[in-house]
Amino acid sequence: MVVANKIIHLNDFINTAVFRVTDTACFLWQHMDDAHIIYDERSGHSQALNDFAYEILDIIGEKPCRLSDILATLARILERPLEEELTQQVFQTVAEFDKMGLIEPVKPSGEVSQ
Amino acid sequence: MNLVPVDAKQRLSGPGLLMGIGPITTRISIEFPSIRDEFLRIYQGYPFFEGPEIIDYYLDVYAKNFFRRYLRPQVAINTLMRDDFAPLPESMGLLSVEMALNWQVAFGCKSHILFHAGVVEKNGIGVIIPAISGSGKSTLSAGLAYDGWRFFSDEFGMLDAETGALHPYPRPVSLKNQSIPVMKEWLGSEDAFSREYHGTPKGTICYLRPPDSSLENMYKPVRPRVIIHPVYGPNAKSEIKPLTETMAFFRLVRSSANYGDIGAPAFHALAKIAQNCIACEITYSSLEEGIRLVNKFIDENIA
Fold first, then answer.
1. pLDDT tens-digit readout, A46-58
2. Using the beta-carbon criterion (under 8 Å), do A34 and B246 form an inter-chain contact?
3. pLDDT 10s digits, B146-184
4. Left, alpha or beta for A45 (phi > 0: left; psi -120 to 50: alpha)?
5. Are B209 and B77 within one domain?
6. How far apart are the C-alpha atoms of B279 and B250, rounded to whole Å?
7. Which chain A residues touch B261 with a CB distance below 8 Å?
8. Residue B293 Rama label (left phi>0; alpha psi -120 to 50; beta)
9. How many CB pairs under 8 A join A and B?
10. Which of B51, B79, B108 is at the close of a domain?
């Protein structure tokens, strides 16, 4: 069950890693009527983010954080616990950001390197 | 200085003829008399210069050797871009010329943001018609051109990233297969058409010279105000579907040949167009209907 293992590993990775936004100096933004468009100068690629994804990237951009931190911050903003469906959407959005190279995992602060 | 046709022919067969279309000047020399004749017929009314002039591109149409010149004539192309075009028979020489000109613009042009799009203008309203091949953009652009619009191009939208203006590049329209009789019927005369080239990789091809008024105004840019994405289907139901700014932006990105090469200035320029233009997708089943939808969308949305 290699495929299942890989999924589990991806889940573990997204759930436990501390992410930060990659070099923000390389990002250009344009805000459209229904989305925020980000241009990555390193790759020359453009991506569209809806308000929800934009907010999540903003949270990660403030300081490196885990998925659990993002969920907690969103719950604070929304003033209610997040439903399972919304939690899944946040998970998928973070996984997409990682795939697109907008965020990257970093060593958690306080961890001593060997 | 414009040359009289006989001089143009001499220069084509000798040192090269300078042809300035919109912002691009190309030096062209053609070794084959039959191709020279076809070239000058379809490019009748275009500005030819003696020079000196800054040359953007270079095109040499020649035979690789004596046998390929006289026994089984075959056309080779040199553009100084280290490209390697498959030779075509002399009877398809004009196709080689047109393909090589397209190739150089598509891969060499970095001075303008390029869209794979038709562009037309009327009353100062620039319309970009971005689409993939086979969507009917050439036919629609040509139809609009012969219905009172100024023709910029059926193939290359050229945008100056700094000024945000579209520049005309009104080369002959490349019509394919069923669109040939449609346009011949639309014009009611065959004077502006080349002969038909059968058996090409894209089927039958025929070139259509843009209206004289478009050629006379080929150095006047315009600001884009409208983006229209055409979808042709022989049995399609007519429809106008508005596009959001984001959708318009990504359709332009998808149609641009050099967006990634130009980088940040292209990103800003395209975003500005998407934000300042009205945009829609039209679905239509005939040229007449396509033109009606374009006019309707503009009349209803631009005061």
1. 999 999 999 999 9
2. yes
3. 999 999 999 999 999 999 999 999 999 999 999 999 999
4. beta
5. no
6. 12
7. 44
8. alpha
9. 42
10. B108
A39 and chain B in contact, CB less than 8 A: yes
DSSP sequence for chain A: -HHHHHHHHHHHHHHH-EEEE--GGGEEEEE-SS-EEEEETTTTEEEEE-HHHHHHHHHHHHS-B-HHHHHHHHHHHHTSPPPHHHHHHHHHHHHHHHHHTSEEEEPPTTPPP-
Return the residue matching tokens 């023709």. B151
* One domain, residues B43 and B165: no
Same domain, B192 and B151: yes
> Which one of B244, B253, B264 has the shortest CB-CB distance to A41?
B264
DSSP chain B: -PPPHHHHHHHHHTT-EEEEETTEEEEEEE--HHHHHHHHHHTTT--EE-S----SEEEEEE-SSHHHHHTS-EEEEE-SS---PPPEEGGGHHHHHHHHHHHHHHHH--SSEEEEEEEEEETTEEEEEE--TTSSHHHHHHHHHTTTPEEEESSEEEE-TTT--EE---PPEEEETTHHHHHHHHHS-STTB---EEEETTEEEEEEPPPHHHHHTTT--B-EEEEEEEEE-TTPPPEEEE--HHHHHHHHHHHBSSHHHH-HHHHHHHHHHHHHSEEEEEEESSHHHHHHHHHHHHHHH--
Under an 8 A CB cutoff, do A34 and B244 touch? yes
Residues with Cβ within 8 Å of residue B113, at least 6 apart in sequence: B158, B159, B160, B161, B256, B258, B259, B262, B265, B266, B269, B270
Chain B: residue whose CA lies nearest to A34:
B246
- Asked if residue B234 and residue B172 are part of one domain, the reply reads yes
The model's pLDDT over A7-45, given as tens digits with 9 standing for 90+, comes to 557 778 888 899 999 877 789 999 999 999 999 998 889
